[in-house]
Design goal:
8 helices; rod-shaped; 291 residues; 22% strand; alpha+beta; Tetrahydropterin Synthase, Chain A
């Protein structure tokens, strides 16, 4: 019994040593081996063997990671203050560089994004920042990857999430939008009135032309009918006198509808004599000098 005790202890120690030396690295992870504080080698995913006690294992993920960059105060090229934040999608490409070339890679990326975000915004106007966000994302991505390659990090994507101008700027933009809409509505209304006036004038023109043609045709027919009949000529004169008097009275009624004050002096006998002379062709005017 006493002979097997040391052997059992040795077997137990050997099994424990082997178990301690086995390191399993999962897919999507990377590991560094440090021996007495110095870099020894990089472990690949799968089964790996190390020296217990003397070897230290540093494990980190190589999967894509995401973190939010807090809102950053910035001023656009046209002097508009705003706040902007972003989301960074990144992955570890070289764990050796990440571990030995930079102290805290996440903090380094965040600070670099903040600095470049502020710089990029300062080189654009507010409307460019709002309208060309994809260009801003591309600029930040290019600037980041030019530096983070030395950190062993690959920046997959940078998305600027929120761009918030100050409250006074938002109110000013809203007032400008309302003014532009009112201007457009006024222009459309004016164009509509103009088109309606043109169409109305065209309609009056066509109606006047038809009316003139009708009067001309009527006069022509009446003239043909009365050329050989003296009685009809006398009747025509009476009709013409009636029509002229009617138009004269209508003209005076329209004058009376005006808002301006006016006084008309009219001698009925003079009016009758004038109408007789007009029909007879002796005078070209009505009383008062009217044509």
């Amino acid at each position: 019994m006493d002979l097997f005790a040391p052997l059992t202890s040795m077997v137990f120690i050997a099994v424990a040593y082997i178990a301690g030396s086995v390191k399993i690295i999962n897919e999507g992870e990377a590991a560094l081996v440090e021996r007495f504080g110095r870099y020894q080698r990089t472990l690949a995913p799968g089964l790996n063997f190390t020296l217990p006690i003397v070897d230290t294992i540093v494990i980190d993920t190589t999967r894509e990671q995401v973190f939010d960059v807090p809102p950053q105060d910035a001023v656009t090229m046209d002097g508009v203050p705003l706040k902007a934040d972003a989301v960074v999608f990144w992955e570890i490409k070289d764990l050796y560089k990440v571990h030995y070339n930079v102290d805290d890679v996440k903090e380094a990326i965040e600070n670099f994004v903040l600095t470049n975000l502020r710089t990029a915004v300062s080189q654009m106007s507010l409307m460019e920042v709002l309208a060309a966000r994809s260009d801003l994302n591309s600029t930040l991505l290019t600037e980041l990857n030019s530096v983070t390659d030395d950190w062993g990090v690959n920046i997959r994507r940078v998305d600027v999430k929120d761009i918030d101008p100050s409250e006074s700027v938002v109110k000013s933009m809203e007032m400008r939008r309302v003014a532009e809409e009112q201007k457009a509505a006024a222009i459309l209304e004016a164009q509509g009135k103009k088109q309606a006036a043109i169409e109305e004038a065209e309609s009056r023109k066509v109606a006047a032309i038809y009316e003139a043609e009708g009067i001309r045709e009527a006069v022509h027919r009446i003239a043909e009918a009365v050329q050989t009949d003296p009685n009809q000529q006398l009747a025509l004169k009476e009709v013409v006198k009636y029509l002229v008097a009617q138009r004269y009275v209508s003209a005076n009624e329209k004058i009376g509808e005006s808002n301006n004050a006016k006084v008309l002096f009219m001698d009925p006998r003079s009016l009758t004599d004038a109408l007789d002379e007009l029909v007879a062709g002796d005078t070209p005017t009505l009383p008062g000098g009217g044509a």
